[in-house]
Amino acid sequence: MFGNQIGYYSLVLGLVSSIGIIPISLKNFNDNRKFDSRIFSISFLQFFFVLISFFGLVISFVVSDFSNETVYNNSHTTKPLFYKISGTWGNHEGSLLLWLLVLTFFIFLFLIQSKNQPKKYKILTLLFQQIIIIGFFLFVLNTSNPFNYLFPIPKEGLGLNPILQDPALAIHPPILYLGYVGSSIIFSSSLAAVVQKYVSKDWAKSIKFWILISWVFLTLGIMLGSIWAYYELGWGGFWFWDPVENISLMPWLSLTALLHCILVLEKRSSLSSWVIVLSISTFVLSMSGTFLVRSGILNSVHTFANDPERGIFILIFLFVLIFFSLIIFFLFHKETYGSNTKIFLLSKETSILLNNWFTMYFLSVVLIGTIYPIFLDVISSEKISVGPPFYNKLFLPFLVPFLIFMTIGSNLDWIRSEIKKIKKKIIILFVISLLISFLIFYKINSVSLTNSILFLAALYLFYFTIRDFLSKKFKNISQFISHFGFSLLVLSILLNSFFSTEVTTNLKVGERFDFQNGSIIFESIKKNNGLNYESVIGNFKIKDKKNKTTQLNPEVRIYNQPVTITSEADIKTSLYSDKFLVMNMVNKNEYFNIRYQVKPFMIWIWISGFIMAFGGIYNFMKRSNEK
Amino acid sequence: MKKFFFYFFLLFLFNFSLAHSIENKNILKNKISKNIRCLICQGQSIYDSQSDFAVSIKLVIDKKINEGFNEDEIYNYLKDQYGQWILYDPGFNEKTLVLWILPILLFLVGGAIILKKIVIKKL
Amino acid sequence: MRNKILLIFLFIFFVFCFFIFYKSINNTNSYKPNIKLGKILKNFDAIEFFSENEINSNEIFVDNKYYIINIWATWCAPCRKEHPKLIELSKKKSAKLIGINYKDNLKKAKKFIGEFGNPFSVILFDKKGILAIELGAYAIPETYIIDENKKILKKYLGALTNDNLKEINSILK
User: CB distance C34–B86 less than 8 Å?
Assistant: First the structure.
């Protein structure tokens, strides 16, 4: 109960700090003195207040303080401690508190990290970030207070969805938010740089740090979400083009494009306008994502409970930010910096432009696919679904030329590559690859032919990435690591989707099911009791063609608060493939519905994702060593 | 003896092709199920869902496959019953024209912008 | 100049987006498939509830009246709630009530009917739910109002409310 007061007033104090920091910063902006260290202190204070508030909420969850409405709605005394803690951010109000925590922490970190940057630029970044921070404070305090009182105090909470009680999912939001919110710094500092006419090589160097942080965490966050979906949701898939998944993918695509562009800005002082556009759009996409998930517009497994009032607030907030950045951009930005820099066809800049071209295309596919049904519904009251068939059809043909370009592009030199032999080959290769992929895909409609072309392109990239790295004698390690990770990712996904097999059947205990590649024997059932659930564990023996056996023990869990039935798949992972068995109860029968899948190279999908992220991390370590 | 092997071989072929056609029917059923939305779930296909509706629809799909319907006919049947929303493929018609064309259009526009920027050295 | 045009265009575009999103927030999110009202019911086979024999729809849709098809089950709480309203409707001479027992336990369903009364002229037993799907239903309870030519006039999702009853009564006149 006391915790509620502390938590709430801490937030209020955090908001007050914003109001305090603004006049001091404005004064410091206009005067001739150095950066006012008080700004520094107040920024830390603001972070500190939010931190206290956040801890207050965590503690309320840990002690199951049901006088707090959020805790009551989302927790239960029988929940394991780890999930009580992670329940803090597994709900709307708590997750917003997490947003605030990272927002305030990152701006403080920014002030430290950019010590040597121009004063006015720093102050403007802070001020723009404060606009975002104040917006979130108002949102939380007005519509999504995590510290609402409940009286009389309930004895027990309403529990948390058992599907969310999973380790990967527990850390998925914080990591994802570090990525999303990191882009807020990019947003604020880009606008500040525009106003100060500071969009330059030096600025690029300093902002690269934040782009990397944001990118690494976003990559890891998306990976964790997919891993969770694979292990927890029981259908053996890891990406479903669900609107909420798309919402995390869009900022990632924008950020990846930005990451490549910032290199051009840094090395050749060109593409400054585009960098700013990307900086703005990445954060706008993050915010739009927040909006779409919490407003109830989207229909998805992931959405929070919908509440129109919250939706309208974020909508207005989001569009205020959009219009604000538009105005700043058009008022202050003058594309004079680097506009005379020529970009030659055979150069790294071109390949980065090509990367952006394709990445923006992929982004537009995801964006349009996600948003179009909303527009159509409002305009013509017709509801359509846009699912995997749409995304696959629009992505796959473009993936082939993209992979081929990635192979060629990463080798080209800055400014100009003079290799005459490659020039002809490149242009011919481009034309041919484009023609082939379109022709095959649309005319012949033969799945296996398309797949083999796709696979060929991925293999091409994979092979050349390794070969070039070895021959160049470790020139650019982080680029190699990330590109290698990406090519491995594409390869693993392709192999996995070509060669996955599955069988479904209904079995009761003692029965055996034979299929083309082996047999499944339902040996026995065991009943068990967990902390907040009852479970039925099935013991299965799987025999493959070579008579090798695998033991798999999937589980069906019946949770008590709220009453939910989930099935926990049993997965045997090896480097070569995953054996995936999930069972479901069939309407109070003695029969169980069994789905057995063999998924080759599954673990390589995760490994390659982490390799990709590691490339970014390596770049960090390299930079801090250089300092 | 030869007759025995002959009939055994026929039986084997029959069994193999039956198993193959059963597996083919299953493959088709799974392919279709992945494309159908579970109307009472929050964003799941009927392939992934174990809800009553999903189970029943899967049986209906089975029935239709056995009656000789092909994939498109089954989609059309379900679309007639439940509306376009049940299909995950938005289809290509006047309502979805913008949906499919717009990304391609943007791709071409992007290409044009880039072409302007690049100085193409004489080939 | 070009910049100004671009700015104005972007402005208008975003204002447009804003209004679309604003409107869509206020729309309800639950999906009601636009039942092609006016669709003619096709013939179907079903299992009769009491005799457990097969029966064809030709034998059911013989009278020259309205037909009310109601899909229900004992495990569905709203179905139990609307049962009294169905009893009321069964008293109307101008309509024939047809029940479809959906994915239920036959014994329990028979017991339920015995205890709470049978408003239906004929009940069909849809153990696997296939019949309901062929009607276009996806959740229960659902009630269809059908005219003598087997044309679907109206469809109600969820338990029948008093307003629904008023509407039905005015159709049946």
Answer: no
Q: Which amino acid is at A82?
A: F
Contact A139, A103 (CB under 8 A): no
User: Can you tell me whether residue A594 is helix, strand or coil?
Assistant: strand
Which candidate in B38, B56, B78 is best for mutational testing of the C interface (most C CBs within 10 A)?
Answer: B56
Residue C95 belongs to a domain with what CATH number? 3.40.30.10
**For testing the chain A interface, which of C9, C24, C138 should be mutated: the one with the most A CBs within 10 Å?**
C24
* Chain C CB within 8 Å of residue B81 CB: yes
Q: Which CATH class name applies to B2-88? A: mainly alpha
Question: Is residue C20 included in any domain, yes or no?
Answer: no
The complex's ipTM?
0.85
> Is C14's CB within 8 Å of A322's CB?
yes
Write out pLDDT tens, residues A562-571.
677 888 889 9
Distances (CA, A) of A66 to A62, A141, A154: 11, 20, 6
Q: Cβ distance C158 to B59 under 8 Å?
A: no
Give yes or no for a contact between A163 and A566, defined as CB atoms under 8 angstroms apart. Answer: yes
Q: Which residue of A has its CA nearest to B79?
A: A384
Q: How far is B60 from chain A (nearest CA, A)?
A: 16
**Interface chains of chain B (3 or more CB pairs under 8 Å):** A, C
Both tokens of C75, joined, read 């495990």
Helix (H, G, I), strand (E, B) or coil at A73: helix
Contact A504 B26 (CB under 8 A): yes
**DSSP code, position A306:** P
Sign of the dihedral defined by the CA atoms of residues A296, A297, A299, A300, in that order: negative
Residue C73 lies in a domain: yes
Domain count across chain C: 1
What is the average pLDDT across A19-46?
A: 90
CB count within 10 Å of CB C107 equals: 9
Among A238, A344, A385, which would you mutate to test the B interface (most chain B Cβ atoms within 10 Å of its Cβ)? A385
Range of lowest pLDDT (A333-347, A437-451, A478-492, A601-615):
A437-451
Nearest CA in chain C to B37: C138
Per the structure, the complete domain to which residue C148 belongs is given by 45-172
Are C133 and C33 contacting, i.e. CB atoms less than 8 angstroms apart?
A: no
Does the model's pTM come out above 0.90?
Answer: no
CB C146 within 8 A of CB B92: no
Q: Which amino acid is at A220?
A: L
In this predicted model, what pLDDT tens digit does every residue of A509-560 receive, in sequence order?
Answer: 888 888 888 889 998 889 988 777 888 899 999 988 888 888 999 988 887 7
CB count in 10 Å sphere of residue A56: 25
Per the omega criterion (within 30 degrees of 0), is the bond before B90 cis?
no
* Residue from the list B34, B43, B117 with its beta carbon closest to the beta carbon of A301: B43
Backbone φ, ψ for residue A504 (5° rounding): -130, 140
Return the domain boundaries, chain B.
2-88
Asked whether the beta carbons of residue C14 and residue A330 sit closer than 8 angstroms, the reply is no
